[in-house]
Amino acid sequence: MRAQLQREISLRLDQATPLHKLATKYGVLSLREGVARYMRKNLGRGSPAGHAAGWYEYAQRAGDRALRDDCLRFLAWNLSPVLRSAEWPSVSGRLLMALLRRSDLVLQSEAELFAALEAWLLRNEPDGLTAENALRAVRYAMMPPLELFRLQTRSPVLARYRESVRDLLYMSYQFHAASPLQMAKYFEVNCSLFVPRNYLTPEWGSPWAVGTSFQTQLGPSGHDAGKRVTWNVLFSPRWPPPGPRPLFVEAGAMLPAHGGVEGGGGGRPRVIITPATSSGDSAGVNFQKTVLVMTRQQGKVAVKHVYNFHQSTEESGDFLAEAELGRRSSEYLVDGSLHLHIVELSLRLIQVRSVQLPAFGPSCKRRAAEPPPPPTTLQCEEGDGGRE
């Protein structure tokens, strides 16, 4: 009642879901939307997992799809600290599968995801079907062959469910042993088993500092092991519109570049990534770049935006559109700097221009034009989580 009369209310984190529930029950839409906005701004408060996991479960029950999706996106884009948190083993099977289906997970490596999944399975001991579905959502081809061998020989979970993932492991070894061109002759390699997520290890990308280049592996296949690509990065901050320049800039804010903007207008920040050199090794490779934008939220640095493009962030259309980089207190400035992490995804012979990649992808079918290799029974189930 006080919220309705005064149009404002003091709110604690532990009061968010009860108040949201009351606003939903009595149809007070403005209060419900206000509480939901408060919850979105505080997803990362507290533990590494924040309140996102618990609020995801609540939003699912309450039927608030927007809040549910925001909680899931926060968990997906900040998954590494979530996997290492004390709350991870207690997440629900529904939330676990919702995360595993996504291609936009931000984490150290696929091996980190498998280790966390194994811990969850050992702790919760779900039914066989749930365990098999979860294990089949792991992208084993994104692990080096030695890591795969270690899992096969040491993992108690794989020892128990070996037959459930035997076909995926077999195809993963083939993926690393054969050249990508040979694989493409016999198999349709656009199912999710061969699609990288957003890995933070140096092989896939790097935190980026202005004026520096970085290197990544040519591709995830073992056939490309040791082959590197050097990338040049150009960053243009928000340029002022043509006209007189301001007499002063707030101390600690990012200085805009000198000059105007092509075609006039206010301009937007822009990142352009191009290879430093050309090589025949990269023929047939489709390089997709991903820029992770970090912000400081309640004292912690977290990923707030994920942008996918092929050469320039102009392709995304809204890169840092709401970031006020000229304001020192902007949440996008961490210790006075804009923090970006660049991930390079190399996809051989896979067209991803405007197609949303499915979570499990279509079945990995053999091509009919060439004699088939030894039989395999790999089938990738379809899912609903794509790279966003």
Arithmetic mean of pLDDT: 79
Helix content: 25-40%
Gap between N and C termini: 40 Å
Shape: flat
List SSEs in N-to-C order: HHHHHHHEHHHHHHEEEEEEEEEE
Largest sheet: 4 strands, antiparallel
In a nutshell, what does this entry contain?
The protein is about 35% helix and about 15% strand. The protein has helices at about 1-5, 15-25, 30-40, 50-60, 65-75, 80-85, 95-100, 110-125, 130-135, 145-155, 155-160, 160-175, 180-185; strands spanning about 105, 200, 205-210, 215, 230-235, 270-275, 285-295, 300-310, 335, 335-340, 340-350.
Structure description:
This protein is of the alpha+beta class and about 400 residues long. Helix 2 (about 15-25) packs antiparallel against helix 3 (about 30-40) and helix 4 packs antiparallel against helix 5. The two termini are about 40 Å apart. It has helices at about 1-5, 15-25, 30-40, 50-60, 65-75, 80-85, 95-100, 110-125, 130-135, 145-155, 155-160, 160-175, 180-185, and strands spanning about 105, 200, 205-210, 215, 230-235, 270-275, 285-295, 300-310, 335, 335-340, 340-350. The chain is built from 13 helices and eleven strands. The longest helix has 16 residues, at about 160-175.
List keywords for this structure.
13 helices; alpha+beta; 388 residues; 11 strands; disordered C terminus; 3-stranded antiparallel beta sheet; 4-stranded antiparallel beta sheet
